[in-house]
Hints:
This protein is mainly alpha-helical and 436 residues long. Helices cover 65% and strands 6% of the residues. It has 17 helices and six strands. It has helices at residues 2-25, 41-74, 79-98, 100-103, 134-153, 167-176, 189-192, 198-225, 227-240, 245-252, 259-284, 290-293, 322-343, 351-364, 381-408, 410-423, 428-435, and strands spanning 107-113, 120-124, 242-244, 296-300, 310-313, 425-427. The strands form two sheets. The protein has a three-stranded antiparallel beta sheet. It has a three-stranded antiparallel beta sheet with strand order 5-4-6. β1 (107-113) and β2 (120-124) form a beta hairpin. Residues 25-39 and 66-75 have low confidence and may be disordered.
Amino acid sequence: MLKCFLIISLFLSSFNDTYSIWQNRNDMPVDSNKSSYFSNGTIRNALFGLFGAATVISVYKYVSKKLQNQEYKELELTLSEQESLAYYAAGTAFFYLLNEPIVSAICELKSFDITSHNPLEFTDHSRHIVGRTRDDIGTEIKFLVAGKATLRLFQKPMVHLGNIIDPIGYINDRILDNGLSEALPLLNYEKVSKFLTTKTNEKIEAEIIDIVTNCHKEAYELLEKNQEKVQKVALLILEKKKMTLQAVRESLDISDEASAELQKAKQRKLIAYHEAGHAIVHFLNPETNQVWKDTAHYLTIKSEDDALGQLRYHPFSFLRTQKNYKNQIMTELGGMAATEIVFNAKTTGCSDDLKKASDKVLTLASCFKHVNYSELISVSESTKEKVENEIKETMSSYYEETKQLLKANRTKLDALAQTLLEKETLSKDEIVKIIL
């Protein structure tokens, strides 16, 4: 391609020079009205400019490719680096296969290639996963650190390779934003972080460090118990350079049952109860007025707007009263409360609900009755302490009320969730017919 552009450009350039000389020798003025393309200087120059630009782009791409190839040659992996990558991949694969029903939901491993600086081929599903308990998250984090734990176990050099998903970021997304932190229960960290005391932030930091440290330790211990199997896989990957996950599975003789389908069915059921919880609280809260009830549009467990399900509302606006805010907060907490009642554990999938609820709880705080909290640039430690204590107490109180309401209407909750599983989307009238 480059040669073609160069030849065409040289030809046009030579033609332009020859044409100009012939024109000057015959004292022929350029006639802009002539139909010949090359007698029109503007069109001729435009064509030269076009082919010139194309030539420059081609040269740039050609040089860039050469430089990339040169850089690749300079970064070719040594045997020691390939060995480290093989052990890293082996530990990750072993832990994945051993806990596939849980970890396959967040990350689908496909193959391994130790001739590349990115030896793991995978699909990241972590953004769209809900229904993870703290125990599930612990297993997932162990999987994320298994590769590095394997290098430490077999005393192999660490390679400059990050985990599949950053475990610290994963904890922030799954635990802190979903109200699962022991130091900050029921609140969305991102929303309230500005009003947390130094003491609480230190507790959260210590909690995250403990989670990661314990997961590293437990992953290491599990790999140590199975080091012969892990080493077998590592040597196999080192020999073949490239392997699929299925080939690793067969070498370890680990069965592949329909775990993904079971997890998908479990997640779908959890989403149905989560959304049904929102609807039950929305319609059956005795303090809810008819105006708020009428804002409901439909309920669905189909993915919409990056959400796996939702109770959709008509556009609405209310007076900023404590009662109206309380009703909305309880509705937003209904999903989390329903899944805790049915599945006996708080789970992920509530970050957006908790973000909205946390925003309203902050608005209700007595310190901000005459102030928009979001406009504050800095907050004193004493104000933080007052706000933090108040929003924790308020959220806890509203959550307990929400749970009691759902427990009192458990039969209706089950009926609505089951109908959602069958139909996937229900109109407001269909919801009302089931629960009222």
